[in-house]
Every structure is written in C-alpha cells, then in structure tokens.
Write the structure tokens for this entry.
Amino acid sequence: MGEDSIEYGLRPEARDFPMMLVLSFAYPCNALCPHCPYTNSAIRKTYKDVPWMPKQTFKKIADEAGRFGAYLRISGGGEPMLHPEAVELLIYAKSVGAKIGLITNGSKFTEGSISSLLRAQVDLIEFSVDAATPEAYAIARKGLDWEDLLSTVRKCVSVRNATRGSTKIIASGVNQKLVEIDEVEKFWLEKIGVDYFIKRKFLTWGENTSLDGTRSADPAPYLNTDEVPCPFIFERLNIDTRGNVMVCGYDIAAKTSMGNVNEQSIADIWHGEGFRHYREMHLANRGKEIALCSTCPDWKYRSWTHNYWKVVEGAESVRSRRLNEADDFQLET
C-alpha cells in the first residue's frame, strides 16, 4: 500500500490514547556518536537538573499507558540503561500493561539485567549498532567497545531462545556514508541472529542541520510533504524528563510545549487544542504554514507504512518462526 492510498487521520489504535510515548528516559550518555543530535548540540546541558526521568513521572506515564496497552519507547537524550532505576522501572511498566520498546547502545547490561528484562517480557530491545566491523564501530559509536556489544547481543539472543521468551531482539544502523549498511544488516541478521534490522535514514532531529545531506547515504524521501501529512502527530508524542510533552521527535530541544504529564492526563493532552491544531493543519495540506513543520527536513522521511509497527510485526514473525523451528528440530532428534 502506498502513502497516497491511505485515508489520513488518527490511526484507529490512537483515537483514545497515543499508540506510542517516546520518552527521554535519560540524558547522560557514555558515547559520542558523530551522527547523534545530542553530541552535536548543547541540549544535554540544559537538563543537568533532571538528567533522569523521575520515578514518579515515569510511573504516572506507565500507569496511563498501561490502560491502553500503549508502547513506551525508551530512548531520548542518552543511554537508557545508565538510569539508576532502569530495570526496576521497565519491569514496573510491564506489570501495569504498558508495552516496552527499549533502544540502547548495549554497553550497560549485566547478566542480571538481561535475565530480569527478558523474564519481564519486555516487548522489544533494539541495539543501535551502526557497524559490522570494530574499525567502523570505533568511529560510528565512539567511546564504546565492540566486543562488549557482541557479547551482550549474543547473550540476549541466547537467553531469549533458551527460555522461549517473547522479547523481540533487533539491531539498527543509520544509513550514513561511513558504513556499508547492507553489510551491517547482513552481519547482524546472519552472524549474530537478531530478529530484524532497521536501516535508519540520517535525520537532523532539528540539531544536525549542518550535516543534512552531507552524511546521509540514502536521501530518498518516503513521502511527498506537499500532499501527505506527517504521521507522527496521529500516532505518538514525546515526553522529556521534566514531563513536558513535545509535539514530535523533530523537536528534541523542547521548543514546543503541548502540556505536562505531571499536571494533566496524557489522554487530555493528546486530545487538546495543541495537537488538534497540528492535525487539522496537516490534514488540510497546510502543515508547512506551521513554523516548526515548515523547517523540518525530516518530515519527508516519516512514513505511514514503513514504520515502527512494521518493525514489530516483522521481528515477531522471525522470533516466532525461529522458536518453532527449534521445536521441530528437537522433535526430529
């Protein structure tokens, strides 16, 4: 199905509550990835007073999301597993019905945290890898250890398979000029055995504008922004450590404020005047009249079909097939 054949508007799953809450769970990071908008900006310095999402804020978000089975996308300004209460909070979110999509560089896992998260049936763990060799990794993921990454991902896959866990384990890479993304994909799928590989566009996130077009190895757009509204405002929202809601992932510097989850319900914010204005403008093909959207070079890389939900479906298909094949092998032997 092409982008132009879709009836645009709130997705059915997002009519009452967003399908996904993208959380800036932690701002500190132990890497200096050259494509990262936080590496290339001063945003982290502005969050020195709230480097981690407070427990009470996270639990309120999780409680509300859990009632709708919504995804908490644990990512944001830094490495989520540096959060001192990461494992405890992710397990809590699962216990109240929320889904968890953890994005991590993989450097801060222990055998205990791996076992705990897999036992809690965290829905998806995505390892940001960006390379298939130690040499490329040293550049793309500056500050991190290649062998440590391999060991961690292999352990996750092994434990998940041995316990017949439901967690989907995937890897991702930014399609940038310093790597051969097809080789990266092949390595992680065939050599390491992850369930899925995401080839990401090189995005500006509002902070990498000086690198836009110079680092990307695949600038081809997914959609025509003159005709197709941005899907993000119809399915998800972003929340920083202060509980402030940004209109979308392009605004990682929190220039917009749609409300605060510590003071309002997420459902009320989702159906509030701010989001309603953005949606009405985009549906009327007037999105470019909005200041934020008019300067967004990433809009063309959003997609109504080539998206996170496709990743979840594809990864689950592979996970299920592999476990079934393992069962068949045991029966045969």
Observations:
- The CA atoms of residues 175 and 217 lie 6 Å apart.
- The chain has a mean pLDDT of 91.
- The beta strands are 20-24, 71-75, 99-104, 124-128, 168-174, 196-200, 236-239, 245-246.
- The two ends are 43 Å apart (CA to CA).
